[in-house]
Amino acid sequence: MNAFMLWARDNRPKFIERHPELHNADISRLLGSAWSNRVDESTRTYYNEMAKRVAEEHRRQFPDYKCVVVFVVLHRWYTVTSISHTHLHTC
Fold first, then answer.
1. pLDDT in tens, 42-76
2. I need a surface site. Which of 5, 20, 44, 55 has the fewest CB within 10 A?
3. Which residue range(s) make up the domain with 40?
């Protein structure tokens, strides 16, 4: 998880409490905007350090883990034609 994801995980309940009428996607947009515009440098530094610790702990727990990103080629609007059009990319 990156710094934003950790901060958002900690702050999402507050945003949901303040805006119970909003859908999750809207809450995510508010979180992104708040992170970009209102979070101070000391908070960013704290969450960046936390993200480093989380990554180190993940590497210790799963030393053989390999990140694989799957790109799916879409044909026509919002339809996936077949898995044969899937491309793998390792991180």
1. 999 999 999 999 999 999 999 998 888 776 666 55
2. 20
3. 3-90
